[in-house]
Amino acid sequence: MVADDQVVSDAVANRELGLRTRFAYGMLVATEALHAARSEGGERGVTRASLDRELRWRREANLFARMRRRARTLVHCLSF
User: Fold this and answer.
1) In 3D, which of 79, 73, 62 has the Cα closest to residue 25?
2) pLDDT digit string, tens, across residues 49-78
3) Which residues on adjacent β-strands are paired with residue 8?
4) What is the per-residue pLDDT across 29-51, written as a single tens digit (0 to 9) for each?
5) Phi-psi region for residue 42, left (φ > 0), alpha (ψ -120 to 50) or beta?
6) CA nearest neighbour of 25 among 79, 4, 47, 15
7) Burial class, 31, CB count within 10 angstroms (exposed 0-12 / middle 13-18 / buried 19+)
8) C-alpha to C-alpha distance for 7 and 69, rounded to whole angstroms
9) Is 1's pLDDT higher than 90?
10) What is the pTM for the complete model shown?
């Protein structure tokens, strides 16, 4: 359990990230770029800290970092 003010709902996080599919959001959670959490009130979502970190990464990551992450995500998908 995480304090209510430290959890961002899945819908809000998805909107803030500007993702078009739930699959893309799910992959960010599965690869632990976003940390899944449950608020004291029982709401599912991700931690505010992980969402802020992801938003900062998206602003600052260079092409090499983006390609490395895509490769890592592909390997993660294929390992299921």
Assistant:
1) 73
2) 999 999 999 999 999 999 999 999 999 889
3) 46
4) 999 999 999 999 999 999 999 99
5) left
6) 15
7) middle
8) 25
9) no
10) 0.89
Give the integer Cα–Cα distance in Å for 58 and 66: 9
Instruction: Please name the residue that has the structure tokens 């995480």.
Output: 2
DSSP-derived 3-state class of residue 53: helix
Residues 8-36 have a mean pLDDT of: 94
> What are the DSSP E strand ranges found in 26-75?
36-38, 44-47
What is the Cα–Cα distance from 25 to 48, expressed in whole angstroms?
A: 15
HSE, side-chain direction, 13 A CA sphere, residue 37: 22
Cα–Cα distance for residue pair 65/76, rounded to 1 Å: 16
Backbone phi and psi for residue 44, each to the nearest 5 degrees, phi listed first: -90, 145
**Continuous segment of H or E residues that includes residue 76:** helix 63-78
